[in-house]
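cache lookup: miss for this entity combination. No prior model stored, computing from scratch. Input as submitted by user K.M.:
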Amino acid sequence: MSATTSTITVRNVIKQFGRFAALRGVSAEFDAGRFHAILGDNGAGKTTLLRALAGLAQPTQGPVSIFGKSPQEACREIGYMAHPSLLYDEMSGMENLRYFARLYGIDGDGRCEEAIRAVGLDPELTRGVGQYSQGMRQRMSLARAILHDPRVLLLDEPFSNVDAHSAREMVGLLKGMRDAGKTIFVVTHQALLLEGSADEFVWMQAGQIVDRTATVARAHEGVQ
Amino acid sequence: MKRLFPILSVLTAILLAYALYLALGKGTPTDALQGDVYRIIYYHVPSAWTAFLLFFINFGASVQYLARAKASRQAAAKWIVIAVGVVGTIAAFVPRVQQQLTSYGMRPSAMATTVLMIVALYFLVGWLFPGDRLDVLAVTTAEVGVVFCTIVLVTGPIWARPVWGIWWAPGDIRLTSTLVLWLIYVSYLVLRRFSNSAQTQMLAAALAVFGALDVPLVYFSIWFFRTQHPQPVIGGGGSMDPRMLHVLLINWMAFLCFAFLVCWSRFRLELLQREVEEAHAMESLAGADAASRASLPLSRSSK
Amino acid sequence: MNSMWAVMLATLVKDIRLEWRSKDALNSMLFFSLLVVVIFVFSFDPLAEESRHIVGGLVWIAFLFAAVVALNQTWARELRNQVLDAYRVSPAPANALFLAKALGNFIFVSVLEALMTPLFVIFYNLHVLGPAWQLIPIALLGTWALVVNGTFFAAMSLRTRSREIMLPLLLFPISIPAVLGMVAGTTAVLTGENSAHFYIVLLLTYDVVFTTACLALFETILHAE
């Protein structure tokens, strides 16, 4: 498995927290422009894998390559979203995004307004993000993640505690982004939500990838 | 290695006993001014030198540990140390510096030798303790150093009280600098204990560097303070009867041997502890292999 | 380099705006500072002649306490909602974040000092016998000394248990030469008995050394997991 500039590769990645091994030798190659759903029980290592891809968790062993570069080098091409909103509660959506735009060297409000509208929210809202509903907050967090037009989106449980309508909207949005050429990774417990949208379902268990299927049903189980 | 330890222990015990014997009376005269109390110097001063040596080793190990993270940083650190060595050695013989040194009672060659030894020690530490052993060395020297430093801080006031009538003089440069050094390294040990980061070793190394940068500043700040507010000097300056110096050096040797043995034990203990952790970690790595080979069905829970 | 200053400025402005909006932190800090001064006044009976010798120390201890309370809040907003992760993932330089936080703290602590100083002057009937202008570099350099290391150690304490006690525990030993400089310098100016010149140089050296050290090592600290 060579690291090419059109794939995201992890090669025998091990991540240990003291005695606990969250990732036990994960090896995989992910093609660009596809929508991957990462599933598994709690403690399977899904979040750790995502954070390793984002450059937030340094693997104990094993290289992570995003289009041929390390996650730190590829940081402009990565958009990350997690269950905490990664936003300042006391600022409005636009204010938050304006600030994060600065971190990416983006001037002007244009991109910010675009991103907020893309997730179906109103840029004019002056309420602090802390006062949003969970669904709105997650969408604003997604807006922050796509602000700098990254090639890769890494989303950790974007739909948890989100109302069904917002969740469906977000999935539709992600599908659109995949169609536009972005590579998407979503860690979720809600596999069925992504049926028909995701290109691939990656199953993890006990720190390893145990299966990769095209549909939510796992072929060798022969169940539904 | 295993047999060496008991042999060295016995030798050290003998040396310590001999040193104690000398210190307590047979080899040395009673001090004209202070009486027998002065003998505490044979514990106070060697402990101080030992503590400083250990803390210096800790500093060297910490710098190396931090530098290791990036190759460019490592090269930079190496050249800075060499530069310090060269500049320090040359500077010792520059006339103006020479004047300053003689006012402290130090010969230029002594300063040059000290600087060169510092540089040599830095590289020796890096060579003898590769990789993670640098961090083990850092922990070891910090802990043992704190113990010796405590001895210095306890014996200092015990000495001062009967002789000068005071427990502590805030302007006493050596004792106060030692106190600050002690505080810094205690905070270092607390950081190591309280940190729950995967990068505890890096954080601690950073703190050690800060501490090392701080010490000269402490020294000079107190030194100047004293010139404005003259204070009694605990421990006295001036020359020493050669017999006393002789006993002092023997005591220092004994302390060094003892410190070496304690460090060695602590080092081995820490290494073993880390090996146990590694073994557990490897087990948990392997454990899942066995589990996944049994291919348990994955429950598809949807919320 | 361009992005470094841009990010730093943006972060500083954002922090000031946030601080201004939720004025509770600001207000409670101001009140706390006032309380500290009052406690000192009751503890040290201020007769004009003697007080000049000890006020230097009292003032800086009061500033130190206020600074620690302020410094403990440095990263509080970034911890909530894990905003720090967003920063780590972005290409923004770590030092820009550090400088912004340090400057923000500097401004905040200076405001507190500006509030507490007149109170000390009033309660202790101070008037300065030495060159009063020297108090300004002492105050600026001394505050920066506390704040630069404080911001750094606050970031270090994020990864520890008992975060709030870790900060002063790490900060105080390292700050001793700076505190000596501030106190001795202030006393020298107040009493006019000595020159504060050396202490100003000491503080300047301290600031340069430790600002460099912080900038060199902050990235490592930020990315510690």
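stored under new cache key. Residues 94-123 of chain C form the longest helix (30 residues).
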